[in-house]
Task: structure prediction
Amino acid sequence: MKPVNCFLFCTDVATTASVVSQLRAASSLVNAIYLLTTNDSLKIDSCETLIADSLQRSETIRKIAEKSDSTYSLIYTKDNALEIGQFAVERLYQIAQDTQAGLVYSDYYEIKAGVRSAHPVIDYQEGALRDDFNFGSVLLYNAGCLKKAVAETTENYLFAGLYNLRLKVSQQAELVHINEYLYTEVETDLRKSGEKQFDYVDPRNRAVQIELETACTDHLKRIGGYLAPDFKKIEFGESNFPVEASVIIPVKNRVKTISDAIESVLKQKTSFLFNLVIIDNYSTDGTTELIRGFASNDPRVIHLIPERKDLGIGGCWNEGVHDNRCGKFAVQLDSDDVYQDENTLQKIVDAFYEQNCAMVVGSYTMTNFVLETIPPGLIDHSEWTPENGRNNALRINGLGAPRAFYTPVLRDVKVPNTSYGEDYALGLRISREYQIGRIYESIYLCRRWDENSDASLDVVKMNANNLYKDKIRTVELKARKC
Result:
C-alpha cells in the first residue's frame, strides 16, 4: 500500500477533479483519495465519497480516521482551486518520516484578487493554543496519531473538531513547519487585518467559542497546564498613594485623537481623587503642544516625556506606573479611544473592591472615527469567566478593554517593553496567581480608523505579532506546569 491517503472537500467537481489529477500525476505516494461532500451524487473517477459538511465536526474527523489505513493522511481544508508544487507531497512525506512528526505543514503561495504572493507561516510552539493558528490548507497527519486522537475524544464537537484534533496530536508528537513554499491556494477573505481581528469575539460566534474553550481546557488538563479557580487574596491596605486612581495614556503622534481621550478622562465623576498620567513618547505632530495646554489648565494632568528613547508602549506604561504620582489603581486608555461616559472610572475602581482582584478588564463598543457604532458592536469577552477565564486566556488573542491594575502588583510584575501584546502578557502573568475582575457592560469606545497601528498589517508583521504572543503563551504554560 502506498503511504498517503488524501481527503478533499468537494463542492465543485471541476475544481476538485483538478486537485485529484495533480495528486495522481505528481506523486507516487498517493494511495486513496476521498471526497468530503454533502452531495453523494458528486463523483470523480477513482475517488470514494464520504458524506460530510464541515471539517470542524468531530463526526467528519472520525470518518477520516476510519479511512486512514495508510501511514499518513493528507487533508486539504479548503474547497478552492489548489496548485500543488513540484514534489510537494514527497517533501511533506520526507520531513514527516525524518522528524516522526504528528503533523507537517508548510509555507505557501496565495492568490488574492488575482495576484500571487508568498505567504509564510510560523513555527508551532507548545503555547500556540489559539484556534486561529495558520497552518495553511494542506496538512499531512501521521495516521496513527490521528486515529489515537480520535479515539481519545469523548466530546461530539460541531465547531471544534479540527482544533481538537490538532491539540490531541500535539500531545503525542511534534507539529513541524517546513519553511518552503509547497503549494498555491486561493484566498477569498480580502478584508484587512484590522477587520478580521475581532471575529473571535463576535457575539454571533459564542457557541463556537464555548466548544473551543472546552477543547482547550481538556488539553490543558491532559498536559498539566490547567489552573483551578483558586486565587490569592488581595489586601488593599497600602495607603501611600497620592490619589486612588491614575489613568495612564502612552501616546506618540496622535494629534487627531488625544484631545478626545483627555477630555473623556477629565469629565469623570468619582467619589475619590484621580489624575491623568500621559507619557508622551517624543511626538512630532503637535500632540505634545496639545498635552501641554491641558496640563497648564488642570493640575490633574501630568505630562511625562521619558528620558529614555527606547520605549515601546509597555515601557511608557512602566514610566507612568513607577512615577511617584501614580495612584493605587492604574487604568488604561489608548490615545485613539475614549471612555463611554463619566462613570467609567468609578465602575472600574468599584470592581477591584467588589471582586477582590489584581486586574480589571471592561467591555467596549467598536466605533468608527466619529464614534458611531460599527460591527460587531459590543465586545464583552464573555469567554472570560471567574471559573475558567485564566485557562481560556491561553487560547484567546486578547483580554478586552479597558484594562486596569492594582499598582503594587503591576510594579512588581512590570510591563514588557514592547508595543504589541504587552497587555496580554500582563493578563496571563497576573491571572496565574490572582483573579481578574470583569465588567461585562460597555464602558469604553474603541475607535477603529486607518491610522490604528493594527489596521492593515502585512503577513510578515502579522507573523511577528503572532509569534510573539505564542511565545508569551509558551512561557506562561511552562510556568503553570512547573
In short: The first strand starts at residue 4 and ends at 9. The domain at 4-190 is CATH 3.90.550.10 (Spore Coat Polysaccharide Biosynthesis Protein SpsA; Chain A). The chain has 15 helices and 18 strands.
